[in-house]
Structure formats: C-alpha cells, structure tokens
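Please fill in the sequence for the structure shown.

STRUCTURE ENCODING:
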C-alpha cells in the first residue's frame, strides 16, 4: 500500500509541475506582448518627435519614448513652467565662459510654440521687452536656463536606464541556475516516481485482487496448497499413541 501511495503522490507532483510550467508560459507570453506594445508605442512617439526640427523643439521634447522618458519630460515641463514665472529668468545672462550661443532667427518656430505652451513667457515679454532687455536676450536667457533643466534631466534619465539594464541582466543571469535546479529536481522526481511505482506481472488490477484474496484466505485459517491435511496429522498421533502403549505393556511384562 505504501508503494501505491508514493506512486499517486508522484503523479500529483508531476501534475502540479505541469500546471506551474503552463502558468509560466502564459505569463511569459503576456510579457512579450506587453513589451511589443511598448516598443511599438515608443517607435510611434519617436517618429512623431523626429518630425519636429531640432531647433523647433521645446526643452521637454525629444527625451525619449519610454515610460520613464515621458515621465522625465513631464518633470522638465513643470520645471520650465516654474522658470517662466520668475522675472530673473529673462534678465539674468548666462555666465561668461558658458559657451552659450543663441540665434533668434533660427529659433522662431520654437519661440512661437513656447508662447502657446507657456503663457507666462508672453506675459513677461510684454513687461520686459524692450524696456529692460532686447527680445533676443529675453529668449536667449530663458532658453539657456531651460536647457540646463533639460540636460540635468537627460543625465539622470540615462543613468537610471543604465541601472535598469544592469539590474535586468543580473536578474536574468541569476535565473539561469534556478532553471537548472528545477530541471534537475524534475528529473529526480521522475526517477523517484518510476522507482516507487509498483510492478505488475501484466495482470493489472485483477492480479492484485487475487493476491489480496489469497492473503485473506490465509489470515482466515485457510489451507495453502503446500500445507499438510488435518487427516494426516490425526493418523500420525494415533500411531504414536499405539507405539507408546506397546512399550508400556512390554515394561509391565518385565
């Protein structure tokens, strides 16, 4: 009975491993579809941004199409809007030696898009140009500070993406030994199941029933084919008693 219990336990374990394997395949397929969707979306966003000339882009555009890049773009836009509310953004020139160059004639489209996207810029432009600064200095000072915000976000984004790639590679490398261990465990379980499975002489369940019937007969006091009959035991006892009586009679005569 113990061998049967071990056999059924092995079958249940094998079925559980099959279900787990199927679940992992479904998860992997869903992950692949999700990654494909993200890649297609990123390609679409990238193609749309590439249609915008570099000199016409706003500071938060062109950072990338990934989820993190889109998040970084939102952070840059929020920071640029905050800069637009500060009067010093337009009146403070870049430090000497910064290597900053700005040509308003090549940035006309970017300026027009900026005025529509950030109304605060147009408000300060009305107050400061030309009484405090020229129009070219006004936008040069603004774009210099906005580009600093963009560059800072881009550096952080590249560092985060590099760390994410390294972490993914480390996780993939760590998963390889686990897969090997699961494979060895599965093979060992299969061997254990085959070793512990009961062997039959080809009779199937009927042969097992016959063996059980013989055991019940023996436990009930039945005769086995090789056991001597009760009649034979009784004849042997009578002969023994007769021999003893004869010996006693001879002793009395003496």
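FILLED IN BY: designer on duty
SEQUENCE:
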């Amino acid at each position: 009975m113990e061998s049967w219990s071990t056999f059924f336990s092995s079958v249940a374990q094998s079925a559980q491993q099959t279900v787990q394997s199927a679940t992992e395949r479904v998860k992997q397929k869903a992950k692949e579809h999700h990654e494909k969707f993200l890649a297609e979306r990123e390609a679409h966003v990238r193609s749309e941004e590439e249609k915008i000339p570099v000199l016409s882009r706003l500071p938060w555009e062109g950072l990338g199409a990934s989820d993190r890049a889109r998040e970084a773009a939102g952070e840059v836009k929020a920071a640029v809007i905050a800069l637009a509310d500060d009067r010093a953004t337009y009146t403070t020139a870049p430090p000497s030696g910064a290597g900053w160059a700005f040509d308003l004639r090549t940035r006309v489209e970017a300026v027009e898009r900026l005025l529509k996207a950030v109304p605060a810029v147009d408000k300060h432009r009305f107050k400061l140009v030309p009484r405090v600064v020229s129009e070219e200095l006004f936008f040069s000072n603004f774009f210099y500070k906005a580009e600093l915000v963009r560059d800072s976000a881009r550096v952080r984004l590249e560092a985060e993406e590099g760390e994410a790639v390294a972490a993914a590679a480390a996780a993939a490398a760590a998963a390889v030994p686990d897969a090997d261990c699961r494979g060895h465990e599965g093979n060992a379980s299969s061997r254990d199941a085959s070793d512990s499975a009961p062997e039959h002489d080809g009779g199937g369940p009927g042969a097992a029933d016959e063996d059980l019937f013989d055991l019940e007969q023996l436990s009930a006091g039945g005769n086995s084919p090789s056991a001597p009959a009760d009649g034979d035991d009784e004849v042997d006892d009578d002969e023994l008693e007769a021999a003893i009586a004869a010996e006693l009679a001879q002793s009395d005569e003496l």
